[in-house]
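Action item from last week, closing it out:
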Amino acid sequence: MKSVERLHVYNLQGYSLTANRFYIDLCMKLKETLTLFEILSTATFDAVIKYYGSIYYFIRKLPNLQNLRIVINAYAPIIAYPDVSLSTLLDESKGLKTIELEGFSLIQCDKKSLTDDSNKNNSLRQLKIRTWSLQFSVLKFIISRCNKLDNLSIHTCVDTKIDDDEETDSSSGIEILQEFSYFLEDIKTVYVDFRIDGHQITRR
């Protein structure tokens, strides 16, 4: 067990918090070798929040984590987890090579991460986001901090609003979108499908 790098457990949604705690506690016991951590249900995410305080605290305790996958039912009648911060995930686990986030109502980032050069992430190779909405600053973060990506996928259900970012006006927002378009040209595999202020952004 001490050499386990990946642990796959499915269909935990219908089980109690106690059963889900057994899974996450086992992952924590394997923290020195575990390279993949998956959350595939709201019940498992509930257990992480209840017993470890936050997903950020949990992944900080996994020193060799390279792959993070959080897939919560994106089409549930009530979305239990309103947001998650992409920049904070990378701050707490700087060795991450792949991140998959699905089922949140908002993906956001910490504004400080856009100006702090020490947070530039050079390990992330694959980023997949499927969310209800996306904070415009996340695009700025991806351009400035995720410069080694070779696989990027972004899908949202509602418009991203430039004016939701207090530090970006419509003019500079258009410039950032152009920069994002150029940024995509250097990525091997791209699937983006979302709208910004009514304008469809699609690249496949």
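Closing note: The radius of gyration is 17 Å.
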